[in-house]
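Human: I'm a chemist; would you kindly supply sequence and structure tokens for a protein?

Assistant:
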Amino acid sequence: MANRIWKLSILLLFLPVLEACHAQFQKELRYLDLYLGIKPDNNGDIPVEEAAGFATYIESPDELNCDFETECLWRNSPTDNLLDTSDWWYFKKNDEKTFPVQIQPGNPNIPKGEHFIIAGNTTKTPNGAVLSSAPIACQKGFSNLTFSFWLYNNAQVEVIILRAMNRRRHLQVLMRPKMKCDFLGAANEECRVEIPPIKEPFRIGIRAFDLKDNTVGSLAIIDHIRYHGKICQQSPFPSSFSSLRIPPYDPSPMARMSDLSCERPLRSCRWGNMAKSQLSEWRVGRSIDRWIDMFEITANQSHPNSSFLFLAVDSFSPRPYSSLTSQVIPCSQRTTSLSLKYWMKTGTQAEICAVDEDGVALSCAYLEPTDSPGPITIDLDSYSQPFKFTVGIIAFDESSFGLLAISELRVAGLLCTEPAPPVVTTISPPVIQHIFGLQPGNGRYVPYDLSLNCDFTKDYCSQWVNYDGIVKYGVMPRDSDVFPVPKGAKGNVAVFLMQNATVSTLRSRMVPCSYNGRIDVEYMKSQDAQIRICALEQCVDGNDGNGTISIGVSSTTPFYVSIEASSRDDAVAIINKISTSGDFCPLKTAEQTVCDQLVCNFKDTFCSYETIVEKPGDVPVLKTENGATVTLSGGGIRAVLLSPTFDLAYPSILTITLSQSTFGSRVLLCPDVTSDPTLCHELSGPRVLDSSDKQVMFPLDIGARSFSLVLLHDKSIEFGPATFSIKAMELRTVNNEPMCF
């Protein structure tokens, strides 16, 4: 018997590399057959159901019952180097030999031909292997999990309850049920585990661990898995908040645009679901029970004060997810405004769109987390054809679930058949916002004409920049009862919308030079507005209610031109055209501008970057001839280089040349200086093998505005100080071609 166990220890060597099955392992496999009467089957791969079986919730607990004789809904978890560092392997009994007494407590007399799975190792470092089930939507009441098991040489087994989805490729443990399944159990004893109720989607994991011993080896065997309990057959999230389905609405024609308002979803609401599946549809929430848990917020944050509409989906919800869709609007004679409050779970992305009858988007707006709960207002210009509004989730953190709630949904505007409202004679900023359909422009750094000439009827003229958000863009109203416009004035315009005493500027890009140049600005303004054009320390006022103001400029050095508007009370100033004559040097492009901002060789300079000390443990980066350099030791764990604010003309690739000296140190690219490291992108580390220069790349989306390069080393006690050097930053196109020259 001693010889038999000694042989077994050698055989365990094959387990981590069974899939190779090269000639050198055949001898060990023959020993397993000789001494235990077992051999791998199916090349050691556990027979599992197709991937679709693991992408939907099980409908019955019996689906997890498994004797490993056919395909099962159990499979090896992906290795996360924490809980799972090894695998289970598929074996069968090849003869009628009994297991030796050192393998306990399962039945030693396994019938010939029976299948089971094994995990084992002969390393000094403990290893673990997790077998995980298909997802379960939730569990009502207590359940029981049983399975046969055999252990050898200090190997252990446990049952862990896992979240249905991994997070950053790591298994997420919800709980470890109480259990006692060890080597000292009674002969032929099964492992029996009672699992308490679980209110969210989960998987069951059976984990072998403490698989170690480089002299003798250790192993675990399991078989005959049985799961008994009452489960949910679909995700519990849509039924949260004591929800009900949205009642069908009256399809009769609307009498007024405000009929689309939906402040009491269970009473009168001309909105409904646009999807086939009831498992991913909008519902009406009637309570805020578990609101804090579901949205993962603090108790003092806001919530709806009455019934609300919400959509909750997870990775197993049928796609496409439903959109909350309004009744079709036949046409509108003025700007239509949709306002609402909204709440989104972190990681959820959503948008509101106006679409035509065929579903083609006319206009869309993303719901920004920073604007929640609002209310926010989305405007759509007058439209002569049928259209409707939609609200939907477009993406979410699939390691959790997506959740969007809205309330106080109001729609204002005029149907083509509605009578016009009474005439208003005073300037009201909200009214001006509404009748002009004012919206922000395309941003500061988008492709633009390289001259100062600007016709707002054709584009946003991004060579003219407003920094305070006072200037917005809209359409000159037609036959307005609220704001009379000069005859012939029409089309798109730039509008200074000022409240109380306000001063704002629309400034040009830097003009390299000019010779006998002239700039003309066509404008109109309300009674309490003033407008003027300034350049080279001189200004010209526009004194009339509408007309043209002009200024002459000549300069061999760079300068700016600004259009300044101010007010004593609520007022508007409108620009519809800017034209030039004479000689002007071409402006710089958006690409040249962002290259000037972000490209840097860091030799005794930070260029446009700056080093930030934000919190305890931060240390500044230093300018050196060898680059932007910092050493992190016990006195500091983080250093930050903050980029300037920029706008890209198109998606680009940021290329960083750097070096770092110490294992455990990390280089992160974060959205801002206060970002949690888990929300940042890891560019380099913590596995640092040498301190030579290397290049790392990061794609910058067109929506990127700034970033923080975070140098982090909180392992100085274990690995010693870490020195970082940032040598250069460059920009390349998405085709990996140089962008800056």
Remarks:
- The CA atoms of residues 69 and 180 lie 27 Å apart.
- Confidence is low (pLDDT under 50) at residues 1-24.
- The two ends are 77 Å apart (CA to CA).
- The longest strand covers residues 139-152.
